[in-house]
Amino acid sequence: MAIRNIVTLGDDVLRKVCRTQLTFDSKLHTVLDDMRETMYKAEGVGLAAPQIGILRRFCVIDVGDGIIELINPVITETVGKQTGNEGCLSLPGRSANVTRPMKVTVRAQNRFGENFTITGEGLLARALCHEIDHLDGILYIDKVKG
Ligand code: CO
């Protein structure tokens, strides 16, 4: 495993719409393992592929309950609202209040291409929305009310 370099604000790669991940091979598994290690080392709760320069639709999240890997995630349902402080490993040293759904349901594939559904509330809901936004080139600062 290897620690990857995290791209920071200003790099175009953070503003691209990522493409669907079609293969579920050892190459993907290596990248996911690297993303997990990179996220833990940086003490983040989520990391999306474009943040390490890969324009594909996958991300990793760990809000304290273990690693979650999401390939081609899609939000299928949202409930309620929450406003809270949010940061991003690509914008070090910054944070702001962002309004997100209180609860979200996401459909995704695991590293073997198998479909699953996950529902998250609170911080997990926030992390799911934040990471999935990255796959469409959206950063949390776009959602801060001015
Ligand atoms: Co982020």
Describe this protein's structure.
This protein is α+β, with helices and mostly antiparallel strands. The protein has helices at residues 26-42, 123-134; strands at residues 46-48, 58-61, 68-79, 82-86, 96-100, 103-109, 115-121. The chain has one domain (12-143): Peptide deformylase (Peptide Deformylase). The protein is built from 2 helices and 7 strands. The chain has a 5-stranded antiparallel beta sheet, sandwiched between helices. It has a two-stranded antiparallel sheet with strand order 4-5. β2 (58-61) and β3 form a beta hairpin. The radius of gyration is 14 Å and the shape is globular. The termini are far apart. The mean pLDDT is 97. The chain binds cobalt (II) ion. The site of cobalt (II) ion (CO) has 5 residues, from α2.
